[in-house]
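Job type: complex structure
Entries:
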Amino acid sequence: MDSSNPNQKRWIDEHHNGTRYGLEGQIIVTEKSAYQEITIFESKKHGRGLLLDGCWMATENHEKYYHECLVHPALCSSQSLKKVLIIGGGDGGSARECLLHQEIEHLDLVEIDQRVIELSQKYLTGIGGKAWRDRRLHINIKDGTRWVAEADNSFYDVIIVDGSDPKGPAEGLFDKKFFQNCHRILSPGGVFATQSESPEAFQRIHIETVKILRDVFEYADPLYGWVPIYPSGIWSWTFAAKDNARYLQPITTRGKKIEEDCEIWSLSWQKAAFNAIPAFVERELNK
Amino acid sequence: MDSSNPNQKRWIDEHHNGTRYGLEGQIIVTEKSAYQEITIFESKKHGRGLLLDGCWMATENHEKYYHECLVHPALCSSQSLKKVLIIGGGDGGSARECLLHQEIEHLDLVEIDQRVIELSQKYLTGIGGKAWRDRRLHINIKDGTRWVAEADNSFYDVIIVDGSDPKGPAEGLFDKKFFQNCHRILSPGGVFATQSESPEAFQRIHIETVKILRDVFEYADPLYGWVPIYPSGIWSWTFAAKDNARYLQPITTRGKKIEEDCEIWSLSWQKAAFNAIPAFVERELNK
C-alpha cells in the first residue's frame, strides 16, 4: 500500500503481482499494532474500509459479498447450532452474520489483534453494528491456533476461520496441524468453514488448502463467489464436515429465517454455487 | 485511462466510479480510430491486453473468463449450429471459441471498427490465433445494428453480441429495437447471447437489459461469472431463446467435444451457474 500522506483525498491500491485494485477516498487512521499495520479508510464508493498490511479486508458496502458466503453455508447446514467459534473476524462482520441465527447460544470470537477489534468498533460501525453488544458474543484476544489446540473435543457445532492471507499473523491458519485441531473440536454433525483465497490470484495456496482439508476431514468442498475488493475478484470458501457433505444441502427452515437479510447468499445460491466450479479448478483439484 | 507516456513501463488503470483496476506493463501502441481510442498493452501479469476508450476489453491470459462464458452456453444448446453471427468481437476471442465447434459452417463477424481487428490480428495473436485464417469465418466491417436490421428472418442459429459498455460505438447494442431484430433473424430453435455488464458496477443497465430481453424473447436468463479485469470482477451474460429455455440444459455430446479446451466453462459449470444468482439480483429481477 502507498500510504505516506494520511488525511488526504487520494487513492489507496492493494498491489498484487502486477495487478492493483484501488479505491478513491481518504485515510482516517493508520497505525502499527503489535501484529500488523491497520488502516481505516473512508472511500467514495464503498463506505468505510479496513486494510491490514496494505491488503483490503472489508468495506462497509461490500463486506456482505464475503461474510455471507463464509458464514451461512455452514450455519444453515450444521445439525445443531448452539456453540459457534470464529477465528479472526476482528471487523465484526462474521459475528454479525452468525448472530442473525437465533439458535446460537454461545459465540466465541478469537482474534489475535485487539486493535483490529477496537478500531473496527470505533470506525466501522456499519460492519459489526449491534453484534458487539449481543450477550451471546464472547470476545477472546488470543492466537487462534492456541485456542483450537486447547479446546475440548467435539465442543463446537460450527467453526468459522475468518483470517487474512497466509503471511503474518494468519499464517498458522492454513496449517494441517491447525485443521486437525479444528476437526477434533468439531461436533460430529458440525460444519467447518474457512476462507480459502482466490483460485486465480492464489491458485497454489487455494488448491493445497482444499486438498489438506480433504485429507483431514471426511468431506470437504470449495465454493466460489465474488469479492470485488480482493485480488482477481474471484474468491473461495471451503467447507468441511465429518458425517456427510451436509453443507451441500442447507436446511430450508433455518435458511428461510435469514434470507431476507442477505444480499448474496440464498438457499438456491448455496445449492447451485457448490456445483459452479471453473473447469481449471476442477482439473487442479482432481490431479 | 491515464496514457500520456506511451512506451514506458507503468501502470494503466481503468477508472470506474471511485474504483480502479490496473495492470503493470508497457503500452505498445495507442491510436484514435474513427470510433474510439484503441490501446494495446504488454502487461507483466496477464500477457498482452486491449483497451477501448480506456476500458479493459481483454488480456491474453484472462480473456477465456469472458469469451467461454459468452459463447459456449449458447453454442452448446442451440438446436442447429450451422450459421452463427457475432456482433462486435473484434479481438477475435469469440470467433476462436465458436470455431472450436466443427458443426459451424458459416460464421459472420460484424465489427464496426476495422482498426480493432487489424491491431488485434497484428498484436494480440494469443487471442484470435488461427481463427482469423479459418475459411468458415466471414469478416464484415459494418454497424451491427444495421446488419441485424437487414438480415433475413430466422437466418442464424446462434447470435452472439460481444460489444463494449453502452456508450460510444456499442450504445445501440442495448436497445430494444436491436434486440427485436435479433429475435426476428434467430431460427426457432436458436439461442441469442449477449454480454450484459456487471450486476454490481452497472446494476441498472444489467437489470434493464435482462428485463428488455425477457420482454422481447419468450425466454431469457442471466448467468454470472468472473472477469477479473472488468469493474467489480463480477460479470454477466444473458441468454435468450424462442421455443424453451434451452440454454439451461447444454447438449452433452456437443459439450464433451470442447470441454478439454476450456478453462472456465464446462457442462456442469453451465448447469449450475444459471442457478447461482446473487440474492440482490434475484430481488431486482423480480421487481
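Summary: The domain at 9-59 of chain A is CATH 2.30.140.10 (Spermidine Synthase; Chain: A, domain 2). The first strand of chain A starts at residue 9 and ends at 16.
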